[in-house]
Amino acid sequence: MPISRRDQEIVRELGRRVAEIAALPVQQETVRLWKALNRLAPARPMVLIDQIPWHEMDVDGSLAPQAEDPFCREIETQLRRTLYSWEHMRADMVVEPHISLPKTILGADLGIRPSEQRAVTDPANDVVGHFYLDQLQSEDDLAKIQMPRISLDAEATARTEEQAQELLGGILEVRMQGLHPMLALWDRIVEWRGAQNALLDLAVRPEFTHGLMRRVTDAYSSMLDQLEEQGLLGQPQALIHCSGAYSDELPAPGYDPARPRARDVWTCGMAQIFASVSPKMHELFELDYVRPWYARFGLVYYGCCEPLDGKLDLLRTIPNLRKISMSPWVDQEKGAEGIGRDYVFSRKPSPALLAGESLDEDAIRRDLEETRAACERRGTPLEFILKDISTVRYAPQRLWRWAEIAREVVAS
């Protein structure tokens, strides 16, 4: 069905506003600052906000989509969120003069999906509680994990690109983007088995767990091989796991935009459930299996919510590691001492500070200043990445204020 003139004008007007912001000199200056941080020579700490509870953000109707066509609404929503973030909580975001849309890539899964029960407190929020049922109870069940068979739906991809060009051609560049695969194997295993079963079998059935890991890592390696062979990896990216990914080191020499390689881009990984296991078990049941994956990529971001301050010697064995997540539960002094000048201390301030009965600005500032002081004493490159924001209690001004305080702290 053709796109209506009204829908087209709604999207084009938003696109023009984004293009004007993308043309500002500050965008290239911010890119320069991200590149400096990512080569471990920062001019100052950097700040980003991601994983936002968008259902709580619209205070004036500026986020409400107006287009009728579903495809237009998707692009409209993306543009409205960019403009909203720039206006209210830009931190060190970069607005670029293009819009990225995913190629239609088939088969990038392992054939098994979670079987779960959910607990919902706010129906408008996509953050819910999960109780996962165990689908991998025996050796025979491992066959449920299938080897990917990657292919491009060229017709659907061309159709998406044609529609986007019709909407935005001449205003914003349209980029059809391939996949940027990450390696969160234990997140997936927990979704298939439940946390308790997965952890118990590390001790009770270690050989079964090794067989599971071999199966999963073989599947992911096959996926990466196919994405490279078919030219379906993504281009060098602006973000890696909610963090700025601009780098002087990527893409690697010999880069061909038509066939990106793993060494041209970042990857990220984590083993969040391993917060409760020893460094030795972490190495035995995770890192021993995933180092070959990381060795293929240009740069690596490791970690998420798990506290990694007690495993930094182990993480140093990860090839191409550049950023290490420092979650709200780490000992920051210990983390900064262990990271030193060798990696980026990717601090995740606690989003719980935004979810109390009232906003405690002094606590927010104190939290950020303690992190900066710990890193300054050791010359440790630092970024603040506020993410996993489940709620701001329908008071988006709290998030705006956090961004202001963070910018004051990094500029001081």
What does the model show?
The protein is α/β, with parallel strands linked by helices and 412 residues long. The protein has a single domain, classed as TIM Barrel (Alpha-Beta Barrel), CATH 3.20.20. Helices cover 41% and strands 13% of the residues. The protein is built from twelve helices and 14 strands. The protein has helices at 5-22, 25-38, 70-88, 154-168, 185-193, 195-204, 206-229, 279-296, 312-315, 332-339, 361-376, 397-411, and strands at residues 46-49, 98-102, 105-106, 116-119, 129-132, 151-152, 173-177, 239-240, 243-244, 266-269, 299-302, 321-326, 344-347, 382-386. The strands form five sheets. A six-stranded parallel sheet has the order 1-14-13-12-11-10, sandwiched between helices. A two-stranded parallel ribbon has the order 2-7. A two-stranded antiparallel sheet has the order 3-6. Helix 1 (5-22) packs parallel to helix 3 (70-88), helix 7 runs parallel beside helix 8 (279-296) and helix 11 (361-376) packs parallel to helix 12. It starts with a helix and ends with a helix. The mean pLDDT is 96.
Oligomer class: single chain
Q: State the domain count.
A: 1
Class of secondary structure makeup: alpha/beta
- What's the overall geometry? globular
Main β-sheet, spatial strand arrangement: 1-14-13-12-11-10
